[in-house]
Amino acid sequence: MSTENSETVTGSVSRRAVIKTAAWAAPVIAVAVAAPLASASTTGPQPVPSGSASTLDGGTSISTYRGGNPNEIRINQSTSGFGFFIYDGNGDEYPAGSYYASAPTITVKWSGTGDYTPILQNLRGWTQSGGTVASGTSGSITFSYSGQLLNGAANRVPAPYVILRPTSGNTLPPTRAVVEASAVNFETIDSGVTI
Question: How far apart are the first and last CA of the chain?
Fold first, then answer.
């Protein structure tokens, strides 16, 4: 019988890094932006205007599981969610579903000294759109959201769940795992740990 230990990797970062990546660290991050009110004559959500938002909002986790068979790195196992909020010049949040993010993507990257095999455990509404699911000491897999990512807490969606397992043996060799999120008219945000 084996036992499973969970270890979540965290670290300290600069104020600039916190501002850039805080969306991954906190369950809710709101960014005040100036954006025009949705016109009453339009129907349905509008695309996020250029210059109106500076960051996405989301949650991710990168955890190591040791003492099991197999040992592995679990990326986005939690379902904390990914999305965005948009506010008018007065700091009032627009109603949920007023805006949509164009071409949202999440990229999972790894690099290190050991050889890992990626396993797409649960895509959760995302589709693989780039990279490869091949073993290697480094790799990158990009996912595109297959639905429409809308503003508001109620519209958050979980990120794709990816597992990295050692290709041979059961040791977790040193590696760097990174998750990046991007969409049109938003800055790319990332979260990463070194195992």
Answer: 25
